[in-house]
Specification:
InterPro entries: Phytyl_CoA_dOase-like. This is Phytanoyl-CoA dioxygenase family protein. GO terms for molecular function: dioxygenase activity. It is built from twelve helices and eleven strands. By secondary structure, it is an alpha+beta fold. Helix content is 39%, strand content 19%. It starts with a helix and ends with a helix. The longest helix has 25 residues. It has an eight-stranded antiparallel β-sheet with strand order 1-8-5-10-4-3-2-11. The chain has a single domain, classed as Sandwich (Jelly Rolls). Bound molecules: fe (ii) ion. Fe (ii) ion binds next to loops. The site of fe (ii) ion has 4 residues, from loops.
């Protein structure tokens, strides 16, 4: 009797904190997953407030980025820049990442194996070209603006191994989805050329903007996500990363676009917009420098100390990763090892010439 009461005394404040921050799981948070509250508009209210504050912070940070990039980001939901680095610098970086030996986290997502190395300051000290990229002022300003938080992102090397899993299962990243209920960004500097051979990034331009139809869809999905047990129509609803059907996409007037890009292209995407991993037809690799920036959407302010905040976030995230690792390794979803990324099916520009 005492045990459940004690457990509730720390769980309730945690759930409440999640409601006023980045919490998105309808399953693990009974407040977010409460049908009556969502019927009264809890989810839609959170979406609305998060978007208003995002636009407010973007406005304040606008001096960081030239106006045409701001327009591109606000209108389409992503920025795409080809030939991002000078050629010579890019090839040095590509060579370094292809040869980099580090702590790899490998997860299975359907038929895809995703390998990532978290490039914290310790790893960066062994990767001078990546360190230069992290210190690139233009990239720094773009990411600080697009995240709306004035904070540089976390950096990873990401390497996809398509058709590498011997037990074919659907890859959840191949379905059109949103990452969460609020605007936030991920970015990729492509080390390989991308096409439908190794899976281009697919984005639905304009789908990051709130329209009446989109709000109605959010409301409908939030009620669906509250369903429990057998009533739940899709296994993916519970985590708050809503999947969108073809019919709903059409109803909202959206059309997806495949961003098949050459190596050395930078893509920064607002992952509140619908996106997915494109189809990969062949056994192939796709390597990127992968950047991620996610913050509390309900804090109207941003940090005045970008560097120090980035350092602090990196430290906190490093510890959180150890905890997450333990859980995923135990469930068999992940394996960790120190070594090289698998690059036997990489597509360099010389392949296509
Ligand atoms: Fe995603």
């Amino acid at each position: 009797m005492l045990q459940p009461i004690l457990s509730l005394t720390w769980k309730v404040p945690k759930w409440l904190f999640e409601v006023i921050s980045w919490g998105k799981s309808f399953k693990s948070n009974p407040i977010l997953g409460n049908y009556v509250l969502n019927r009264c508009g809890l989810h839609v209210f959170r979406v609305l407030v998060a978007h208003l504050l995002f636009r407010f912070r973007l406005f304040l940070l606008s001096p960081l980025v030239p106006s045409h990039y701001r327009r591109e980001f606000i209108e389409n939901g992503y920025i795409l820049i080809e030939n991002f680095l000078p050629k010579e610098d890019f090839y040095k970086l590509s060579g370094e990442l292809n040869r980099f030996e580090g702590p790899v986290r490998e997860i299975v997502e359907g038929t895809t194996i995703t390998q990532r190395i978290f490039m914290d300051s310790e790893q960066r000290s062994r990767a001078q070209e990546l360190k230069k990229l992290v210190e690139n002022q233009f990239l720094n300003h773009l990411m600080r603006f697009c995240s709306s938080k004035n904070r540089p992102p976390l950096f990873y090397i990401e390497n996809l191994c398509n058709h590498a899993n011997v037990h074919p299962r659907p890859d959840p990243q191949r379905d059109l989805h949103v990452d969460t209920f609020h605007p936030c960004v991920k970015a990729w500097l492509y080390i390989d050329n991308t096409s439908d051979e190794n899976g281009s990034y697919v984005y639905v331009p304009g789908s990051h903007r709130l329209t009446w139809k989109r709000l109605k869809w959010e409301y409908k999905e939030s009620l669906e996500a509250c369903k429990k047990g057998e009533d739940r129509s899709s296994g993916r609803y519970w985590d708050g990363s809503f999947r969108v059907s073809k019919d709903d996409l059409e109803e909202m007037g959206y059309v997806e676009k495949e961003l098949s890009v050459p190596e050395n292209t930078l893509v920064i995407g607002n992952v509140y917009g619908f996106h997915r991993r494109g189809v990969a037809l062949k056994k192939s690799n796709r390597m990127t420098v992968w950047m991620q920036a996610r913050n509390n959407p309900f804090n109207p302010l941003f940090t005045p100390f970008p560097k120090a905040t980035a350092r602090a976030f990196e430290g906190v995230w490093k510890k959180a990763l150890i905890r997450l690792d333990r859980r995923k390794i135990e469930s068999g979803e992940q394996r960790n090892f120190f070594g090289y990324l698998s690059r036997e099916y990489s597509r360099k520009s010389t392949d296509s010439k």
